[in-house]
Structure formats: C-alpha cells, structure tokens
Amino acid sequence: MAAPRIPHLSTLRRGQGSTAGRGRGSLGNSATASNEDDDATKDRIIQQTDQDASVSRLSAVEIGYLDDPFAKIFITKEAQRRFPIINRELTEAGGTYVRTTTIDRLTLNFLNQPAAGPRQIISLGAGSDTRYFRLRNRQPPLPSFVYHELDFPSNTAQKIAAIIRSSRLRDLIPSFTTSSDGTALDSPAYHISPVDLRSLPQPSPNFPETSSAPPSRPEALYAIDTTLPTLLISECCLIYLPPKAADNAAKYFSQLLFPRPTPLALIVYEPVYPDDPFGKVMVSNLAARGIVLQTLKKYGNLEAQRERMR
Questions:
Q1: Separation CA 296–CA 238 (nearest Å)
Q2: Could you count the other beta carbons within 10 Å of the beta carbon of residue 105?
Q3: Can you name the residues that pair with 106 across neighbouring β-strands?
Q4: 191 has which bridge partners?
Q5: pTM (2 decimals)?
Q6: Helix, strand or coil for residue 83?
Q7: Residues with Cβ < 8 Å from 49, sequence gap 6 or more?
Q8: pLDDT in tens for each of the 310 residues of the chain?
Q9: Contact 150, 126 (CB under 8 A)
C-alpha cells in the first residue's frame, strides 16, 4: 500500500492558459516521476535495514549471546554477502542482545499477567523478526495469544515466502492461508499484513468527542480484535517515519482503533541522545548510507519520549 504522494507544483499548473504548453507538461511529469523515484529509493533503503538487523541477530546467535533457532531462515543471500558474520563486532552483537532480550522480557511480562482470555500483540514494521516463532516455540507453552505483524508489502512478501519454504516455520502456524499476491498471511493465531503506516487514517483534533461513529479501518487490519488486551511494539520502526506520520500512527492505534476500555500497552525501542559522542557517530554512519532517523530530533531524550506517551 503506497503512501499518498504530494504532487509536484508544476503538475498543478498544467491547463492554466497558454503558458501550460506541452513542454511544461512534460517537464512536470518528469519532475513528478523523479520525486516518486526518490521516495521509492528512500523506502527501499529503510526496508533494507531489516536485513541489517537480521544479520546482527544471527551474529549474536553465532557468538552465543542469543538463542534463536530461526535467525538464519529469514536472511537473504544478498544480505549475507553484504555483511559476513565473521566481520561483525562483539559490541554490535551486544547491542542486539540488549535490544532483543529487553523487548522479550517486556513481552513475556505482558503475556504472563493473570487475566482471563487471550492476549494480542501487534508488531509495527516487523520485517523478518522471529519473535512470534520464538514465543510459540517456548516450553511450557505460553498463555493463549494472537500475534500481528505489519510492514511494507515487499517485506511481508519476502517473509511469507521464507515461511512457505520452511517446514519448521510452517509447523508453528497451523491452518494458515496466504493472499493471491503473497503479501498477506492469516491464521487463527498469527497474521502478517501489508500496511504502510503512513497511510493510516488520521484522528481529528477532538476525537472522540466530535464523533460517535466507529473509525475507518484499512482492510489489512480487519483481523485485529479491538476487545483483547493488546501490546503494541515499535522496534526501531516509528523513528523512520516523518514526525507527523509517526505521531499519527501511534494515535491511530491508541485513540482511533482501540476503544478506551481495552487495555493497550506500547513498547517503543529506538535511539536517543543524537548529540552525545556515540549518537553523533551513529547519525553520521547512517547518513552515509542515506538513512535518516526522522523522529530522533523531536524525541531525542527520555523526557521527550515520556511526554510522547502521555
């Protein structure tokens, strides 16, 4: 699902008298196409960070920091060529360990809370994350839960293809079906949905006071049960969105989709403090690859993050 494109100003001028000749029309089309190509390129760069994280996770597994029997299944051959395991540093594997175990512990705390009925987890920008499979593979089994993953169609298609190829993964998803284009997977307990978070409906300034009607819901999100206690996970996801889009995505789930009586928790894992020595090196290294952490300036410290959640 592509995000809405902002039209180039020259395309809005066509048809206004004799100045809008064929030459200007062609120029406008070229400029618009160029802008769309640039946007698509930026999207691809962000999507590729998923494989970066996957290789880092496998590095942590190889070194012995993490136990993840599914880590290697989702890594593409191209990613393995770009980032050979032998060249990964211990410090990066250590960072992956902290990132993974912290979110795992919070997730397990959520699932093990005493309560009747199933729980629900929604992972934003999940990519090739293996958390569902690791949770489902635990012994003794965890309390009943439903797991949703949302991401770009290109990422969901790649993950679903890997699942279909792996009997080990398929065995952990009973009775699943996939869409005809291979970008969506549905089962009683696990869903992969192609969603561009930038395209989610935006709440009005005074919602819900100004509206009693239920909010619109993208078709890809119909499987979400808005009555279940829910944990929303953004693991280095919202930070790649423009600040307004990131805020709208968080508000969509917290204000529009889920009614207030439904328990809803949010985990946000992303970098902070871009101006300290480590932060400056991180920002510089990412910029060299064309990657911008778009909300880092707005939510660059813990107090800003706390205020974001209020």
A1: 10
A2: 10
A3: none
A4: 148, 186
A5: 0.82
A6: coil
A7: 236, 240, 291
A8: 444 333 332 333 333 343 333 344 444 555 555 555 667 777 777 777 788 888 888 888 988 899 999 999 998 766 555 555 444 455 667 788 999 999 999 999 999 998 778 999 999 999 999 999 999 999 999 999 999 999 999 999 999 999 999 999 999 998 999 999 999 999 999 999 999 999 998 877 666 555 555 567 889 999 999 999 999 999 999 999 999 999 999 999 998 999 889 999 999 999 999 999 999 999 998 899 889 999 999 999 999 999 998 8
A9: yes
Taking the C-alpha atoms of residue 110 and residue 120, their distance in angstroms, rounded to an integer, is: 10
Contact yes or no for 165/143 (Cβ under 8 A): no
Contact 45, 155 (CB under 8 A): no
Please name which of 201, 233, 197, 198 lies closest in space to residue 214, comparing C-alpha atoms. Answer: 201
Q: Is 114 exposed, middle or buried (0-12, 13-18, 19+ CB in 10 A)?
A: exposed
For the CA atoms of 98, 100, 103, 104, what is the dihedral angle to 10 degrees? -120
- Using CA atoms, how far residue 122 sits from 10, 78, 266, in Å, is 41, 28, 10
219 backbone φψ class: left, alpha, beta (φ>0; ψ -120 to 50): alpha
C-beta of residue 237 within 8 angstroms of C-beta of residue 124: yes
- The H or E element containing residue 278 is helix 277-288
Angle at 172 between CA 78 and CA 132, to 5 degrees: 65
Biggest CA–CA distance in the chain, Å, is 75
The closest of 158, 96, 156, 123 to 238, measured between CA atoms, is 123
Q: E strands along the chain, which residues?
A: 119-124, 145-151, 177-178, 185-186, 190-194, 230-235, 264-269
